Amino acid sequence: MKLLEDRIKKEGQALSETVLKVDSFINHQVDSEFMDALGRDFAEHFKDAGITKVFTIESSGIAPALMTAKHLNVPMVILKKQTSKILNGNVYQTRITSFTKGTSYELTLFADYIQPEDRILLIDDFLANGEAAMGASRIITESGATLAGIGILIEKSFQRGRKRLEEAGHRVYSQARIKRLDAGVIEFLAEDAPVTDVEENE
Ligand code: G4P
């Protein structure tokens, strides 16, 4: 998606071979008009998927997920990150470990906010190793609902997340795909470039 690529070129900062900083419009300060445009693009892309709810994982996915939900005219649900298991109440939980941040949390959803007939679109800001998305998929499957699509703002195509999600049978759309990062270098991959052409790099 040209709009997002252009913004990354203008304001993104490649800090290393693995980390892209986009604090000025996604992770710290949020550009609401820009998020609205990204949400419209996700809604258009998944308009034929019969989506009944948009899910995201707190916190940076919330803004684009809300805008996507607005354009699809469906509710948005935030999967929470809890530090420990909730032992009472009707909840779905699964443990996620972040390689990028070296942290773990219990991804948590109250059962009231998902029904077996739901078709879920998951929206998140970054796709790296796919741990968070795979965890969301486990929760959705456990509830009996369907994960009908995954929309990502920035896919780091040199990490294995996209491949894992597609091998698990998921429909993935990334608005920007990053082929390579290095200090001061950001290279993009075409939207339709095959995933198998991408080097694995954990
Ligand atoms: P994975 O789920 O795909 O395996 O990703 P990973 O664990 O490696 O990354 C987890 C966290 O790190 C996520 O944030 C993700 O957005 C963030 N992240 C990964 N790569 C980058 C990057 O290159 N740049 C930036 N800015 N963030 C990155 P989170 O812990 O969920 O935090 P939040 O911002 O959503 O609160």
N- and C-termini, Cα separation: 25 Å
CATH fold group: Rossmann fold
The major beta sheet can be summarized as: 8 strands, mixed
Name the hetero compounds present: guanosine-5',3'-tetraphosphate
Calculate the mean pLDDT score and round it: 94
Strand order of the main beta sheet, please?
5-6-4-3-7-8-9-10
- Helix fraction by DSSP (H/I, runs of at least 4): 25-40%
GO molecular function: xanthine phosphoribosyltransferase activity
Binding site for xanthine: 20, 27, 156
Family: Belongs to the purine/pyrimidine phosphoribosyltransferase family. Xpt subfamily.
GO biological process, one term: XMP salvage
Report what the structure shows:
The chain has 202 residues and is α/β, with parallel strands linked by helices. It has a single domain, classed as 3-Layer(aba) Sandwich (Rossmann fold), CATH 3.40.50.2020. Helices cover 30% and strands 34% of the residues. The strands form two sheets. The chain has an eight-stranded mixed beta sheet, with helices on both faces. The protein has a two-stranded antiparallel sheet with strand order 1-2. β1 and β2 form a beta hairpin. α3 (32-45) crosses α4. The longest helix is centred in the first third of the chain and has 14 residues, at 32-45. The mean pLDDT is 94. The structure holds guanosine-5',3'-tetraphosphate. It comes from Candidatus Anaerobutyricum stercoris. Its EC number is 2.4.2.22.
